[in-house]
Design a protein that fits this description.
five-stranded antiparallel sheet; elongated; 7 strands; two-stranded parallel sheet; alpha+beta
């Protein structure tokens, strides 16, 4: 093989790689806005399930367990009716992505588990309606897990206490604490340290 042959092969490979790169960039540039719009719609749908009939305005971002999350204000007829915060709890085998809706007094109204990798048949019980229903009406002082039967606090799922605590005492409680600190008390300078 001569030097000229090597040059031709190299040149052909460079041209193929450049064409491939341009095609990928073109596809990404066209798909990216659609992916963004689809994600925004999925987020709005998830918010409306938590506080039906409300309009949502993103208030800001925050970080928990080095994960980027958002929080929103919910309004009906121009009046604030509550807030929704995205939060994460460190579970048995995953970070549990959770949406938490609170009323104007920062009492939990509803939670929704957006994603997790907890153990099937045990930790994934956090997705059941009966578990999530326990949070309705709880203030921050009552977001504590009990291993005995309780309606005042959050009852642990048998065999999945770590997952239960990850949702209750980590994701939900820290999310509510952030909202109280940020919205009611008007400052959050120490929140990131508090929750990492």
């Amino acid at each position: 093989m001569t030097g000229k042959d090597i040059f031709k092969i190299t040149l052909n490979l460079v041209i193929v790689y450049l064409i491939g790169g341009f095609i990928l960039a073109f596809v990404y540039a066209n798909a990216s806005p659609k992916i963004f719009q689809n994600n925004e719609k999925a987020e709005q749908d998830a918010l409306k399930l938590l506080i039906p009939g409300a309009d949502f305005k993103k208030l800001g971002d925050w970080t928990i367990h080095d994960k980027h999350a958002k929080y929103f204000e919910a309004k009906k007829g121009g009046e604030t009716v509550g807030y929704v915060i995205q939060s994460f709890g460190k579970g048995y085998s995953s970070y549990i992505n959770t949406f938490v809706a609170v009323d104007k007094d920062f009492k939990v109204q509803k939670i929704n588990i957006l994603g997790h990798g907890e153990t099937p048949g045990l930790g994934d019980e956090i997705e059941t309606d009966s578990f999530k229903a326990q949070f309705a009406g709880k203030d921050i002082e009552h977001l504590k897990v009990m291993k005995t039967e309780t309606t005042e606090y959050i009852q642990a799922i048998s065999g999945a206490t770590i997952s239960t605590r990850a949702v209750s005492e980590d994701a939900v409680k820290n999310g509510v604490a952030f909202l109280i600190k940020t919205i009611r008390e008007g400052g959050n300078t120490d929140v990131q340290h508090q929750h990492n």
